C-alpha cells in the first residue's frame, strides 16, 4: 500500500495594503497542507522597500533585516517541528492543527471573549489608517455586551467556541433587546458585528458550525430629516447675538451646502481648500471611510468659509465643540428660526442630498460621489424624493405627454 505524501509549505508575506503608523508592513505567515491553507500574524513588521516577495525574507545585511530573518527562521523551524509532531502522532494533518500547536492552543482552547478582544486590539492599531474610530467603538460595545451576557447567563468569565450553539445566539439577541433596551436598528448593527467575529473564528477553525445560518434580522427604515429651502433661508436670516450659536449655525449650514459630516467639517483646515479656474473647492477625505471627497463651494458656503478662515494653514476652520454639544445648541437655534422638529447636525448631509442636490435635478451618481459613498445604495437612503421635486417631475411629464398624445 502506497503511503500518501503530504505537501507541507510555509510562506511569509507582507500586507502592503495595511501599513502601520510608522510606514512598515505587517509580516504574515501562511501554512499550506495538501491545498488547504491558513494564515497567521508573525507579530513582526518590515519596511516594504527591503522585502523580497520571492524569497519571503528581508533583503540586505542591515541589523533590522538580519534580526527579522533570524526570527522568521525560528518561526519556520518551530512550525516544521509542530508538523512533524502531528505526523508522528498520526493526527489529522490540517494547517489549523499546526498553527494551534505552534501557538500552544492544543491544550488551551480558544475562547470567544479572548478572541474578540484580540480582534479589537488589532482593529484599534489600524484606526486612523484604514479603520474608523466609530467602528472600533461599535466592536468594543458589542464585546462589552457579550461579556455582561456571559457573566449574567452562565456565571463565567468566558466561553469556548465549542460551547456556542444557536441558543447562545438567540439568548444574546434577547439580552441586548430586553436587558439593554437597544432599538431594532441598533440590534441589527450589533448582530452584524458579532456575525463578522464568528465568521473570522470559523475561517480559523475555532468554530465548526455557522450559528447565523437561517438567522434573519433586518433594520427598519428610518425617516431621514432634512430642511426645506424655506427653512434654510430662515436659518440664514436668523440674527444670533451668541457667538457659539452663530458658529454652530454656520457650520451646520456649511454642511447643508457641502454634504460634509460633523467630524469632516471639524477636521477642515486651509490646506483642504483648492482654487481651480476661479472656483473654490474643498478637497478632503471622509474620516469614516477614507473616501476622497471634492466639493465645489456655492456662494453661501463660500461666504461662511471666509468668515472663519484662520490665518495659519494648520489651524482648524471651524473650532467646534463636541457633537453632542453641537446638537443641543442646534436645537436652540432651530427653535429661534421657527423649526420645532428634532434636527441633528447629521441632518445637514440629508439636506444636501435631498434639498440642495436631488431636488435641483442632480443625478444620484453625482450625489454619491459628492457624499463620498462607496455604494450608491447608501446614497439612495439619504436621497428622499421631496414633494416639490415630485410635483415638478409630474408637471414636466404631463407637458410631454400632452404634446405627444394631443387630440
Structure description:
The protein is mainly alpha-helical. The chain has 3 domains: 8-102, no CATH class; 112-203; 242-394, Intergrase catalytic core (hpI Integrase, Chain A). It contains 15 helices and 8 strands. It has helices spanning 63-88, 95-102, 112-125, 133-154, 166-179, 184-203, 229-237, 243-258, 262-266, 299-308, 323-336, 347-357, 364-371, 376-382, 387-404; strands at residues 8-14, 25-33, 36-46, 51-52, 57-58, 273-276, 279-285, 292-296. The strands form 3 sheets. It has a 3-stranded antiparallel sheet with strand order 1-2-3. The longest helix has 26 residues, at 63-88. 24% of the residues are buried.
Structural key phrases:
about 400 residues, 3 domains, 3-stranded antiparallel sheet, hpI Integrase, Chain A, about 50% helix, mainly alpha, about 10% strand
Topology:
Elements: E1 8-14, E2 25-33, E3 36-46, E4 51-52, E5 57-58, H1 63-88, H2 95-102, H3 112-125, H4 133-154, H5 166-179, H6 184-203, H7 229-237, H8 243-258, H9 262-266, E6 273-276, E7 279-285, E8 292-296, H10 299-308, H11 323-336, H12 347-357, H13 364-371, H14 376-382, H15 387-404
Antiparallel strand pairs: 1-2, 2-3, 4-5, 6-7, 7-8
Helix pairs in contact: 1-2, 3-4, 4-6, 8-10, 8-11, 8-12, 13-14
CATH architecture term of the largest domain: Orthogonal Bundle
The pLDDT mean sits at 85
Instruction: Compute the number of helices.
Output: 15
Major beta sheet, strand line-up: 1-2-3
The major sheet is characterized as: 3 strands, antiparallel
The helix-and-strand class reads mainly alpha
Oligomer: single chain
- Per CATH, the superfamily of the largest domain is Intergrase catalytic core
Distance between the termini: 91 Å
User: β content, as a range?
Assistant: 5-15%
Q: Runs with pLDDT <50, length 5+?
A: none
Number of domains: 3
Number of strands: 8
At the third CATH level, what is the topology name of the largest domain? hpI Integrase, Chain A
Amino acid at each position: 500500500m502506497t503511503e500518501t505524501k503530504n505537501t507541507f509549505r510555509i510562506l511569509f508575506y507582507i500586507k502592503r495594503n495595511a501599513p502601520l503608523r510608522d510606514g512598515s508592513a505587517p509580516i504574515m505567515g501562511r501554512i499550506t497542507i495538501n491545498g488547504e491553507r491558513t494564515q497567521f500574524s508573525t507579530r513582526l513588521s518590515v519596511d516594504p522597500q527591503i522585502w523580497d516577495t520571492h524569497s519571503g525574507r528581508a533583503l540586505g545585511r542591515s541589523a533590522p533585516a538580519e534580526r527579522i530573518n533570524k526570527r522568521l527562521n525560528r518561526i519556520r523551524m518551530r512550525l516544521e517541528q509542530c508538523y512533524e509532531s502531528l505526523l508522528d502522532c498520526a493526527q489529522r494533518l490540517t494547517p489549523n492543527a499546526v498553527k494551534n500547536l505552534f501557538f500552544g492552543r492544543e491544550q488551551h482552547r480558544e475562547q470567544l471573549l479572548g478572541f474578540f478582544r484580540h480582534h479589537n486590539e488589532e482593529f484599534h492599531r489600524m484606526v486612523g489608517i484604514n479603520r474608523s474610530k466609530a467602528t472600533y467603538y461599535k466592536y468594543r460595545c458589542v464585546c462589552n455586551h457579550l461579556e455582561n451576557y456571559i457573566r449574567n447567563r452562565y456565571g463565567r468569565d468566558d466561553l469556548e467556541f465549542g460551547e456556542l450553539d444557536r441558543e447562545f445566539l438567540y439568548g444574546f439577541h434577547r439580552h441586548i433587546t430586553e436587558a439593554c433596551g437597544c432599538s431594532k436598528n441598533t440590534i441589527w448593527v450589533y448582530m452584524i458585528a458579532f456575525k463578522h467575529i464568528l465568521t473570522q473564528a470559523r475561517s480559523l477553525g475555532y468554530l465548526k458550525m455557522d450559528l447565523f445560518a437561517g438567522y434573519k434580522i433586518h433594520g427598519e427604515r428610518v425617516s431621514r430629516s432634512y430642511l426645506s429651502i424655506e427653512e434654510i433661508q430662515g436659518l440664514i436670516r436668523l440674527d444670533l447675538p451668541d457667538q457659539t450659536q452663530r458658529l454652530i449655525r454656520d457650520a451646520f449650514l456649511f454642511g447643508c451646502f457641502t454634504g460634509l459630516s460633523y467630524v469632516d467639517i471639524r477636521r477642515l483646515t486651509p490646506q483642504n481648500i483648492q482654487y481651480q479656474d476661479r472656483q473654490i473647492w474643498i478637497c478632503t477625505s471622509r474620516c469614516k471611510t477614507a473616501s476622497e471627497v471634492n466639493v465645489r463651494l456655492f456662494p453661501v458656503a463660500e461666504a461662511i468659509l471666509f468668515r472663519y478662515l484662520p490665518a495659519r494653514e494648520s489651524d482648524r476652520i471651524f473650532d467646534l465643540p463636541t457633537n453632542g454639544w453641537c446638537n443641543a445648541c442646534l436645537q436652540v437655534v432651530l427653535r429661534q428660526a421657527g423649526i420645532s422638529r428634532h434636527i441633528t447636525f447629521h441632518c445637514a448631509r440629508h439636506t444636501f442630498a435631498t434639498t440642495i442636490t436631488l431636488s435641483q435635478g442632480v443625478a444620484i451618481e453625482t450625489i454619491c460621489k459628492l457624499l463620498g459613498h462607496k455604494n450608491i445604495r447608501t446614497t439612495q437612503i439619504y436621497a428622499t424624493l421631496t414633494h416639490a421635486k415630485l410635483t415638478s417631475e409630474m408637471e414636466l411629464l404631463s407637458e410631454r405627454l400632452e404634446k405627444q398624445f394631443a387630440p
